Amino acid sequence: MLRILVLHGPNLNLLGTREQSVYGPTSLDAIDSSLTKLAEELALEVDIRQSNNEGELVTWIQEARSGYDGVIINPAAYTHTSVAIRDALAAVALPTVEVHLSNIHQREAFRHQSYVAGVALGQISGLGPTGYLLALRGLHDYLTSRRQKKSHSPMASSRQKKRAR
Ligand code: DQA
């Protein structure tokens, strides 16, 4: 079963009460429940965590190297500041989708730069909580087709033949 690590960065624990005109009324618990429900439908496992601490996020990304197939991350304010989170994602080299509830490119200039985007498979920005669900579907499709390609590769078929002998 594919396993996806979902990381929420600083202040996202306040969703639902925080700057509702920007981030909307949905709580983080509600986002997490909808992700868990979709994961069940897609037969995926999701491990969902939130931290206000950059180092903790870096450690979790490093630990994902074993046992996880992909990462969904909303690094929140660390998007625009954290070389450490970018480096951790580059080091583990897991397919990663970056999510933002708001459209960071329409907001203040300091939010236009993402340190994470350069090491991500893709970025979803501005679609609210739906962005997380699209990220999960996108990662599922990417990982599933990658698995199929691997199992149809000449190397894989020679491995299968060896096993059959
Ligand atoms: C955010 C956008 C960031 O600029 C901001 O610091 C956040 C949330 C978003 O989801 O829209 O905390 O990542």
Please specify the SSE layout and strand pairing:
Layout: E1 3-8, H1 20-23, H2 28-41, E2 45-50, H3 54-63, E3 70-74, H4 83-92, E4 96-100, E5 122-125, H5 130-152, H6 154-164
Helix pairs in contact: 2-5, 3-4
Task: Write a short abstract of this structure.
With about 160 residues, the protein is α/β, with parallel strands linked by helices. The chain is built from 6 helices and 5 strands; from the N terminus they run E-H-H-E-H-E-H-E-E-H-H.
Q: Would you kindly provide a written description of the structure presented here, covering whatever features stand out?
A:
It is a single chain. The protein has 165 residues and is of the alpha/beta class. It has one domain: Rossmann fold, CATH 3.40.50.9100. Helix content is 44%, strand content 16%. It has six helices and five strands. The chain has helices at residues 20-23, 28-41, 54-63, 83-92, 130-152, 154-164; strands at residues 3-8, 45-50, 70-74, 96-100, 122-125. It has a five-stranded parallel sheet with strand order 2-1-3-4-5, covered by helices on one side. The longest helix is centred in the last third of the chain and has 23 residues, at 130-152. The model has no long low-confidence stretch (mean pLDDT 94). The chain binds 1,3,4-trihydroxy-5-OXO-cyclohexanecarboxylic acid (DQA). 1,3,4-trihydroxy-5-OXO-cyclohexanecarboxylic acid binds next to loops.
